[in-house]
Design a protein that fits this description.
single chain; mainly beta; Methylamine Dehydrogenase, Chain H; five-stranded mixed β-sheet; four-stranded antiparallel β-sheet; 3 helices; 29 strands; 4% helix; globular
Length: 428
């Protein structure tokens, strides 16, 4: 199908939060709204930008859209980062209205010492502490998958939790660390997929002396299947040296499937390579980058990455050698944070990284049925922000597919904005 590009009149949007503080949600992979669509989750901080330290506090709460967008504070945490916040999310499958977020604890004997998660019941005000920090929670709310955020702070600092305590050197691919399954009701945990398991699964020579980690762990709507990015590198300080695989697995660690591998030669490992010559967003624009995978439904995954020699938005079937479709060829030509509408699967919401000249990010909708892209607005970002403290738009859908919510810093503050997109999505 031929695709084309419509520059729509920018849609009006409204800012949430008018208390003189800064608000953000973080990632694009889950809805900010609760099931009733009355409450919108947010982290609240006193500054738009800061270097993260283990004692920096973010308040946890939500806006009440039926009460003048008033912010309700329910707790606070020091386990967070600018990209993902504290992995704050609603527990959709739990009774009543409950939310979960990561926290630091006083338990030095935990698998990841002093890190856990808090479950807050909005209706009763009760808190429950779980023994591991979550990376993602199953839509059923029965379990979460957990990783070592201290490892991420070394391998991919943008999505780790700051740590100033001296740490021994990380093993490259340990058998006793990886993805843990945590029962959200009992708090019981078990390691289901280790870094050694991943390195030993259809290995590449480039893995032998590299350090390994996982990111972008996502669970399908039925809570029956998990996708992840397996990454490895010999130089953690240079993202251009990251290598990537898109893998799916059962929640218990069985039935690993390799959907894509972007292993390739790395000239950046040459001794005379200057990493300072690499721009802040060059990595996001690499032709070898596999990023931002998300389930469209129980069997299909949308991702930005290379396949068959060219890089696109690709839709994968969760099967070895399964069909891979290009989405938006010639129109969706750069990396973004993409999600399908929860009610109309032909609508894809996404964004772009900052233009290298204008520092503008574009928010858009793409209709897979018509091939039309509709630009919804353009938002400036401060070019002084770096990888760790940047403010991506990270667009998220409302539950009914009528609204989008973004984080943005175009007004000089880090704030959340809601946009009504129903006039577009109802039209096709």
């Amino acid at each position: 199908m031929h695709s084309s590009h419509i520059i729509a009149s920018p849609l009006p949007y409204r800012r949430l939060g008018a208390d003189g503080l800064h608000h953000f949600f973080g990632y694009y992979n889950k809805s900010t709204w609760d099931r009733s669509q009355r409450y919108v989750l947010a982290q609240r901080v006193p500054m738009a930008d800061a270097e993260l330290t283990p004692d920096l506090v973010a308040e946890i709460g939500f806006f009440d859209l039926q009460d003048g967008d008033r912010f309700h504070r329910v707790g606070q945490t020091t386990a967070w980062n600018w990209q993902m916040g504290a992995q704050l999310q609603w527990l959709d499958g739990a009774p009543g209205r409950q939310l979960i977020y990561n926290c630091r604890t006083d338990d030095p004997s935990a698998i990841y010492p002093h890190l856990g998660a808090t479950v807050h019941n909005v209706e009763t005000g009760e808190d429950k502490t779980l023994p591991m920090p979550v990376y993602v929670v199953a839509p059923s709310s029965e379990y979460g998958l957990c990783v070592n955020y201290r490892r991420l702070y070394i391998t991919h600092q943008t999505i780790g939790y700051s740590d100033t305590t001296p740490q021994p050197p990380l093993p490259n691919a340990p058998a006793n660390d990886g993805i843990h399954y945590m029962d959200l009701r009992t708090g019981e945990t078990r390691l289901v997929l280790s870094y050694q398991d991943l390195r030993d699964f259809q290995p590449k020579a480039s893995m032998d002396t590299a350090i390994h980690w996982v990111s972008h762990i996502e669970i399908n709507p039925r809570s029956s299947r998990v996708l992840l990015l397996h990454r490895w590198t010999e130089r953690v300080e240079d993202e251009m040296c990251f290598l990537h695989r898109l893998i799916t697995v059962n929640p218990d660690g069985s039935d690993l499937r390799l959907l894509e591998c972007s292993d390739h030669p790395l000239p950046q490992l040459a001794k005379d390579f200057d990493p300072n010559a690499v721009g802040t967003f060059d990595y996001e624009k690499s032709e070898h980058q596999i990023s931002h995978p998300l389930w469209r439904d129980d069997e299909h995954i949308i991702v930005w990455g290379p396949h068959a020699g060219s890089i696109h938005y690709h839709l994968y079937h969760d099967s070895v050698g399964g069909e891979v479709q290009v989405i938006g060829e010639g129109v969706l030509t750069e990396n973004g944070h993409m999600t399908f509408s929860p009610v109309a699967r032909n609508w894809l919401l996404s964004d772009t990284y900052p233009d290298s000249v204008t520092n503008e990010r574009v928010l858009f909708l793409y209709n897979t049925a018509t091939g039309l892209r509709h630009d919804l607005g353009s938002f400036y970002t401060d070019p002084g922000l770096k990888k760790e403290n940047r403010c991506d738009l990270h667009p998220r859908w409302s539950r009914d597919g009528r609204h989008a919510c973004i984080d943005s810093i175009h007004d000089g503050e880090r704030q959340m904005y809601v946009m009504d997109v129903s006039a577009l999505t109802a039209s096709a």
